[in-house]
Design brief:
The structure holds two protein chains of two kinds. In chain A, about 0% of the residues lie in helices and about 50% in strands. By secondary structure, chain A is mainly beta. In chain B, about 0% of the residues lie in helices and about 45% in strands. The chains are: A mainly beta, B mainly beta.
Amino acid sequence: EVQVVESGGGLIQPGGSLRLSCAASGFTVSRNYMSWVRQAPGKGLEWVSVIYSGGSTYYADSVKGRFTISRDNSKNTLYLQMNSLRAEDTAVYYCARDLGFGSGSYFGYWGQGTLVTVSS
Amino acid sequence: SYELTQPPSVSVSPGQTARITCSGDALPKQYAYWYQQKPGQAPILVIYKDDQRPSGIPERLSGSSSGTTVTLTISGVQAEDEADYYCQSADNSGTVVFGGGTKLTVL
């Protein structure tokens, strides 16, 4: 069974750092395109970042230069390192498996999400 | 930046047909996808590549495309269909974009 489970969220002060993890089972992270998508409280979905199977990474303008997506193949786990956090980064962060494989991204498997709250 | 426009809300009575639209200039060149999200839950893919339905999604949900507008149609709406629905596509550079979401209320 395909499953992704996020962890690492919590309360962090503005300017702080946090690393989110996404543990996958039922498929191999390194052979797939994997994305992070976030949702601010009461708001819509916002794509954050993607890592391709070949290792290329891309980011939304809102997080470029502050967030870094990566993976650990030995642990079959995806990460999102978030630095210089701002109040507007407060959201539930979802890990999602991209089924597009380069022909147009779309997300067939989502985790349950992990809440990041940036507040003093 | 590129935007996908959805109506904030749609209301229908049980058994009727709900239509949720999503408009964007790049839609003639990019596929559209639809997600259903119920309160406190992660989104679920319900339509991919404009009109394809993943396994396990009821046949009453369907997608269509015409020019710069794509439509999610739910026929014979049931109470369990009440949820937020998001369209998703990409801009001309391939960057993923989501619509603002539509709250479907079953009266």
